[in-house]
Design goal:
The complex is a heterodimer. Chain A is of the alpha+beta class. Chain A is built from 15 helices and 30 strands. In chain A, a hairpin with a 5-residue loop joins strand 17 and strand 18. The longest helix of chain A is centred in the C-terminal third of the chain and has 21 residues. Chain A is globular and about 70 Å long. In chain B, the strands form 2 sheets. Chain B has a 6-stranded antiparallel sheet with strand order 1-6-5-4-3-2. A two-stranded antiparallel ribbon of chain B has the order 7-8. Chain B is of the alpha+beta class. The termini of chain B are far apart. Chain B is 44% helix and 17% strand. Chain B is elongated, with a radius of gyration of 29 Å. The chains are: A alpha+beta, B alpha+beta. Chains A and B meet through helix 8 of A and helix 11, helix 13 and helix 16 of B.
Amino acid sequence: MKNGTMKNGYQYWIILLLLCGSALRGMAQEGILLEAESFLFPGGWVVDPQFVQQMGSPYLMAHGLGQPVDHAKTAFQIDEAGVYHVWARTKDWAPGSWDPPGQFLIQVNGTALPDTLGRTPGWDWEYAGKAKLASGEATLELVDLTGFNGRCDAVFLSRGEAPPPGYGKKLAQWRRQMHQEPMAPETEQSFDLVVTGGGIAGCAAAIGAAEQGLKVALIHDRPLLGGNASSEIRVHTLGIYGKFERILRLLDTEHYPNGSAKAKIDQEKRDQNVKAYKNIHLFLNWRAYDAVSEDSTIQYVDARHTATNERMRFRAPLFTDATGDGWIGYWAGAEYSYGRESVHQYGEEWDEWGELWSPEEADNFVMGSSILWQTHEGKEATDFPQRSWAKAVARAHEATAGEWYWEFSRNDLHQIEDGEEIRDHLLKAIFGSFANAKALPENSHYQMTWVSYLLGKRESRRLLGDHIFTFQDVTDHTPFPDSVVMEDRAVDVHYQRNLKDEEVPDFLSEALFYRTDRYYIPYRSLYSRNIDNLFMAGRCFSCSHIGLGGPRVMRTTGQMGAAVGHAAALCIKHDVQPRAIYTDHLEELMNLIEDQQWIRP
Amino acid sequence: MDKALILVVLYLMVPATANRSVRSLPEPVFMTMPEAFEAARSTNEGFFVFDPQHDLEHRVQLCRDAKGAPLLYYADLQTPVCIDGICKPVRIALYWNLLGAYIGYGLHDDEPLTKYDHDLFVAADHEKLHELLLNKNAVFRRKKLSDLFDPTAKPEKQVTYKGEEVDAVSGATKKAIKDAVVEGALYSCYTIWKLVHGTADDSIKVKLPELWDDALARDFLYAGRTDYQFYALKQLSDADFDRYAPRLLQLFTQSSPLFRTTLLKRLPERHWRTEVWKNGLYRNFEQVDLNTRTLLINGLEKAGEEVAARLLPDLNLMSKNQLKAYLAFWEDRELKPHIRNQLIDASQDEHYAYAYLIGRFLESKAP
């Protein structure tokens, strides 16, 4: 186990933060609540904000690929000396008849508390022990014991013996009280366009609008732009450029194998290019948590910093949902769909694949999410431990590399609501399969170098627009008057292989390709049909499950974003909502899209 | 006379194959439904399919068994395989099942398949051709003959046919295609694949409703082929789910998760409450896959409380969301003492990861 070391300037930071009070997330009379994501020094723990809407908060995770990570540390002020009971909100992420994988300890003022944490199956407070504390400053550390994804949402110190509420609304209410948060965010800013989600679609939307002179806010819950294409997830971009080659080349990737470290080169390019636009106001590490509409018009989006928990309200006449999961539309009351439609709903039958392609009866068995990972062959033999909780998922599967077909979907799981379980299942599959492979002499030099902890999602909510893009639009090659996106790529729909053969592990998928000539996506699929000022770009655009199969790749979603950015500029120019661009200004939009190809940045 | 023309004339002189008994056809080189072939008797029923490649029509014949049940289709045909205007005839018998899926091919003893350098097909070549024909999505699906070559690639060898140099074999064949076809027989492979998957397969499937009756439904259900079973499942009427319950329940345990889930989606509501179906489905809860369990739990609203109570000993087989769905079933129902007691026991099961959810549920149901 690695020991954490105090960094230079640590004392200075403690004093500074204690003075301004921001090290204390909620110091109420009843106790001290320390949000893990706000720790002064996260050490080797990573901030995971993916599942805030399900479990209540970003959290710290010890993503060490089997090697315990450096301690996470923070400091806080004790006003009243005495014995404090200490709880951590955590979970056993692989519950079963084995040692929990993500165990850790809490150390207060350098002394470890007795109880090991990470033992309960659902997110809840676990008791760590008690500490006798003098008044004044104190320190607290998270001590990872395993390197296998232990996680901590928050630590609570109390003179009382009862833990806080563990989950649900009661927890959220208690948290707000502890943080003494007013209902509305403390600060507010106004823009011409607020784009939420900094994947390729969101970036392209921001650039498209910024180039036309709009003041744009781009809110993204990660430190790096690109979403699935980022060096944190590492899916290469596919699809054609359509009319937006100039913009998309600022953002896309080379065609390296999925998971390649070369993603870092494109990451640098992308970040620099977006930051070069002076009128794109970039809010990295901000995660939106609400959008409020009145009279079918979004008034604002509220977001929270994933580490400091600072909140901000973003106002604008126009909003773009590029979150992938369609969160802005969902909160604002936009109509949406989720799941696989009945084959009859839009006439999407492909006889050859029957139920695997499109079911007779609608269901929730959508395409799954992936976690990419990478290994390399080192000079020396190394070990990788096999763990029962990983073996239970991997079974006999052996692998020294992953690819797109490491994908997980199951009909009792929702790709948004159960995202954490899906991610964790894939981690078990990866660790277990790699351990199986390492047991073979020929793989003794393989080392695991990188495993993403961010889910690469394929399919989630689809917000409904004036046009719902379906398989029929692909097979008919319909040239719409408002075709702003075009694609040649096959309709590519996945299914879990174990549906056909239950001996295959449940985390492997197969693709069904319907190869086709060029097809088009109309502008009318890129704005909400019932929220007047909402655009959408990315996988949450208006389409059916099968319709999503082709254009879900990132150059295509980038085209959507760029088109939306230009449409937003016309909305501002004419002081109209997105639909009016189709009804009253379509020629101008199409000309603008045509002409922007020749802009010199 | 031009050599190509001579070959076409020779081809046209071959007598039509209609009305020949299937027993007179050569033994198939490959046949994935041998039992159907053994029982097959040729009929006069059939239809013509058009081959736009060569502007020809071929007759596809239906075969039935001795009792008259439809079994398969075949076409004993001859087609020219041409390169740059030079043609040679290829004679082959093709077989499809009643859904239009390719199932095998046969050859006449005196007309073996050859490559362009006159070598006969060896066993491995036949195997490769069969594999290719089985693949409805083979690389030929959206290709024209001209798409098969890389015009910039240099052929590894020049091949001649009847003294003429024939271009574009092996080396010039696009790499992705080269691996999928019999080397030196690209044109034959392409031509035969197009005959198998051109229009014949779809035409056969379109004809199936005309042949469909109770006897065929039964044959399909009892066939060992999953494509037949799926087709039959989709045709079943409400009453058929009574009639064929034993077989359907047998398939429920023995077939793939995809078949199980499709069956459960199609099962009419009233059958969920019959003893046969309730017992047949839920007694296998432990054996079936997780996706099927989800549908069984979702089906409890149709199956009723008594069946739901039967699942109490199996709670520890449920995923978190399945358990939530199961508990939701009881949400607005009265928990009789024996049910409550079993839930209490399950909530205290240290080996069940989600026992805590049962505890929370019981708390919420507390009077």
